Amino acid sequence: MKKIILIIFIISINSQFFGQDLLDILDNETPKTENIVTATFKGTRILNGHSIENRKDKELEFIISHRFGRVNLGFDELFGLDQSNIRFALEYGFNDNLTIGFGRSSFEKTYDSFLKYSLLKQKNGENSFPFAVSLFGSVAVKTLKDYDPSDKRTFAESLFYVGQVLIARKVSPSFSYQITPTYVHRNSVRINADPHDIFALGFGTRMKLSKRVSFNSEYYVTFNESKSIDARNSLAFGIDIETGGHVFQLILSNAITMIEKSFITESTGNFFGGDIHFGFNISRTF
Amino acid sequence: MKIIHTILMCFLFVNVSNSQERFLTKNGAITFFSSTIMADIKADNNQVLSIIDASNGKMAISILMKSFMFKKALMQEHFNENYVESDLFPKATFKGEILNFETLKDLETKLEVKGLITIHGKRKEIIIPASFTRSENTIFVKGEFNLLLSDYNIKIPNVVAKKISKEIKVSFEFNHKPYKK
Predict the structure, then answer these.
(1) Is there a contact between A197 and A189 (Cβ–Cβ < 8 Å)?
(2) Contact between A244 and B163 using a beta-carbon 8 Å cutoff
């Protein structure tokens, strides 16, 4: 009796072995690879501020951004469209992890340059890591001669510095968020009571609405604000539309500027009071 | 006791002979081309898994979509994000049978493989012509065929319709070696 049981047992093992599906064998043989999470955000900007994304290796991107006047200016100003602040920029990827950019904003005739480095990648699979970290640093120089002729501003006095740590996580294919500790240093300020160093914390999200369209939001809280202006935290909502080599971003924001030193520390619009600037970013990758 | 020994020996023998009849590769190559007047797009995957059971001519292939390498990183991102949706459908698979496998000798032989192919979560029956060469320790398979993107629910938006062909040419080369478990 024992022998019979043993025989049945062996036969069942064997038949199980024969019945093993070829695809199951392939699944077992698939090497466990680490998988870098891509496209946490579609563009190199969430809306006004930078996302963790870099330009890819040896890619050159031309970005044109516009922010129009406040929509609550009414029909006489065509809801802000008569006024416009424009920024042109060229951004280049030295490799997949390091991007350099140069831009010029018409607002206060400001030139800016930045470096962005992707320090850590979000990974799943083998060696998984829960979030991505990029480092961002920029220098901006304001060249608008808005000073009293007797009190001429030197080049050094016109400089602004920004440092950011961008921390982002793609939670699912359709939702990503980013937290952005920010430090802004201004070599000169309007009145002595204004701080030279401003600390802020940014929050950004991306929600995918369809394969090529996503809804983004961005909010920067500043912890110490300028006293000389009625500074407000920067808030923006927008839509990303992707078409091949282009990403269009349509933006509603209480900031009229597009570089960190300005929109984080110098925004005065009250978003919910209707001080909303319509704008867009268009990028073309070569 | 003797009987048990005999049975155990049989069991071992069956297992050994069985595993010797399977042939596997972990670095099979698949390349696909999309060619239009506006643009040529090509992607290579050299980490394709394929297995053949020589005892019955059954064959299976497993393809990790994220292992397709494109010339432009942005194309690769679009491929994974927008077209094949690799996060939702990480693998393409094939499972089927080599027709008339028993006629395969050591000369290059043209045979057909019939089975189910699954891409982007959509399954379809397909017959792929391929040339097989069998030697003592290898089964070499190569061939090419065309796929219609619309069969697999892969949609191309109008703006890029001129740059991406509706029909994709796929070529493959697998050099299977005996599979030892």
Answers:
(1) no
(2) yes
